[in-house]
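--- STAGE predict ---
source: upstream dedup step, 1 unique chain passed
mode: sequence only
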Amino acid sequence: MNSHGNRRDTRVVTGPEFTIAFTLQGHAFQDIRIMNLSVGGCFALLGGRTARFFLPGATLDGLVLLHPDLPKGPIRAAVAYVLGYSTSGEATDQVGMGLQFLSLDAATRAALEAWLAIATAGQAGEG
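--- STAGE serialize ---
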């Protein structure tokens, strides 16, 4: 998945209490806000000053979904795309990045699918 136009999975919009933690090139990142979530990935926001580390294709190890209702199994992910990054050296407050989940264990995947099914059923009932 090289473009956010190639999404196959239903995404759930998440609130400010949904965050992730992971390691990139030996550096730990904590409490990174996610804006949406699917079984195939998520969209995260991070500070503009750290955006240079998150080039498309960069691998995130040990990604954990920090919300109490979500599974805690480690996920391996890759940066699929980055939005809002300035290559001119200008500082931007926040940068968005689409993350594609590369691998997650069967129990984590099943628990995430179950949570997403409940969340999408709730969203369908609101309309």
